[in-house]
Amino acid sequence: MFDALSGKLQQVFKNLRGMGKISDSNVADSLREVRMALLEADVNFKVAREFIEEVRQKAIGQEVIQSIQPGQQIIKIIHDELVNLLGSAHSGLLLDASPSCILLCGLHGSGKTTSAGKLGRYLTRMGKKPLLVAADVYRPAAMDQLDTVGKQVGVPVWVEKGETDVLKIAAHALEHAKTLGANVVIFDTAGRLQIDEPLVQELVRLRDLVKPREILLALDAATGQEAVNVASHFDQALNITGAILTKLDGDARGGAALSLCKVTGKPIKFAGTGEKLDAFEPFHPERMASRILGMGDVVSLVEKAAETVDQEAALRLEEKVRKGQFTLSDFREQLRQMRKLGPLENIVGMLPGGAGMLQGANLSRSEKEFIHMDALICSMTPLEREKPQVLNASRRKRIAKGAGVTVTELNNMLNKFGQLQQMMKKMGKFQKMMGKFNPARGLF
Fold first, then answer.
1. What is the dihedral of CA 434, 436, 440, 441, to 10 degrees?
2. Which residues does 152 contact at the CB level (< 8 Å), separation at least 6?
3. Which regions of the chain are under pLDDT 70?
4. Measured in whole angstroms, how far is the alpha carbon of residue 286 from the centre of its chain?
5. Which of 27, 215, 253, 320 has the least CB density, counted as fewest CB within 10 Å?
6. Taking the mean position of all CA atoms in its chain, how far away is CA 381?
7. d(C-alpha 104, C-alpha 188), whole Å
């Protein structure tokens, strides 16, 4: 989402890194470009103005450390101010009661129902027992949608079809939560405009009944400067405790994320990073600031890998590598593990300098190659996967036809696999050698 903003800021930083000394004029020129980048990203103009003023004051008053170039110090100041703008530190959920209630609110189409399912999945993985409540009685099929999402993430859903009183649904859901033993109840409410006062008042009555520990505003990242008005109105009516920024994977310019916390004083607690129900992560201001500035987010990438990668499969692969038994079946498993991490552009974007790598790169082609490789290996017999040397011309034609690709593409994949297999064998031999090494004697 921040690609355009990130690209412009990195161009500014290229000029800053070559700065020999800090002066009023060169700081003003650089910050003018930063301000334009923020405004083009649809950041609220008051927020952009205050941000630039904070950076300017700190940059001019900063004593230059001899071991650091002046331009790098300004980049550090911009990074720190960007972290403050996004909320300073990660703010977790307040779930001290049992059951603790979470009220989701927001505009029509802001992603509340999907976010409810994602949040339910997240809490389940955190060891909680959530219950989803279908409290949208206005949108056709809203209850069915939440019921479907709940089944997909394995979280129970309270649905009362035909009931139009939201307060009755909430009261019955709380009773059911006690029976079920659920310790978190998530209410998916109807979308409403901030000018729709009767529906807003319904939310107020619902809040007073269930006394939620968290009132989270689902805010579409594409909302831009209007996010300020939306968030302010819901905050005044309900006193929200935080926000979920949805559709962060889209082509929105990012103004909502950079304006929300500064204007409302309420933190962004989660971010929806894709359509899939596992594309949901806690919002860390410092990590997001590093991503925007092209510094990467290796911590989040490692956390995602630890959550996604099958540890038992990794240990089995390590044993096979040690024995030099890496096969096409193992290769396919590694391709699938990599694809579980999400789109390739998201993974690359988390690496330092990843935003620069993405410019001009055809990652969709790489994704397609992964899919084709998987299909080719699936078209093989168990014997062919274990011993690719048996693949003669007729077998190769059959496999390529079964996967819907050309024989040339199959040959390219087998060449890549052969190179990888050789590398794995060398790694296996090295591990064996290190296993025999005796540090005390320095001998094998």
1. -110
2. 117, 277
3. 1-4, 14-24, 26, 61-71, 194-195, 224, 250-254, 256, 294-311, 313-314, 317-318, 321, 324, 341-366, 427-444
4. 14
5. 320
6. 37
7. 6
- For 209, list phi and psi in degrees, rounded to 5: -75, -50
- List pLDDT tens digits, range 418-439: 887 777 777 656 555 545 544 4
Q: What is the CA radius of gyration of the chain?
A: 26
What's the half-sphere exposure (Cβ side, CA atoms, 13 Å) at 48? 21
Q: In residues, how long is the chain?
A: 444
DSSP 8-state symbol, 443: B
Q: What's the rounded Cα separation, in Å, for the pair 54 and 71? A: 17
230: which 2 tokens?
């939306």
SS3 107: coil
Sheet strands side by side (includes 100-106): 157-158, 130-135, 184-189, 100-106, 214-220, 242-246, 268-272, 280-282
Q: What is the pTM of this model?
A: 0.68
List b or e across 275-290, with b for residues whose CB sees 16 or more CB atoms inside 10 angstroms.
Answer: eebbbbbbbbbbbbbb
What CATH code is assigned to 307-436? 1.10.260.30
Distance in angstroms (rounded) separating the CA atoms of residues 333 and 316: 11
Residue holding tokens 């078209």?
Answer: 379
Burial of residue 322, with CB atoms counted within 10 A of its CB: 0-12 exposed, 13-18 middle, 19 or more buried: middle
Burial 46-79 (b: 16+ CB within 10 A, else e): ebbeebbebbbebbeeeeeeeeebbbbbbbebbb
pLDDT tens profile 215-259: 999 988 777 677 778 888 888 889 999 999 888 776 556 676 777
Arch. (CATH architecture) of 3-86: Up-down Bundle (1.20)
Q: Quote the tokens at residue 306.
A: 């630890």
Give the H or E element holding residue 173: helix 166-180
Q: Look at residues 349, 282, 353 and name the one whose alpha carbon lies nearest to residue 86.
A: 282
- State the CATH class of domain 100-295: alpha beta
> E strands along 9-129, which residues?
100-106
- Sketch the domain layout of the chain as residue ranges: 3-86, 100-295, 307-436
Question: How many other CB atoms are there within 10 angstroms of residue 365's CB atom?
Answer: 9
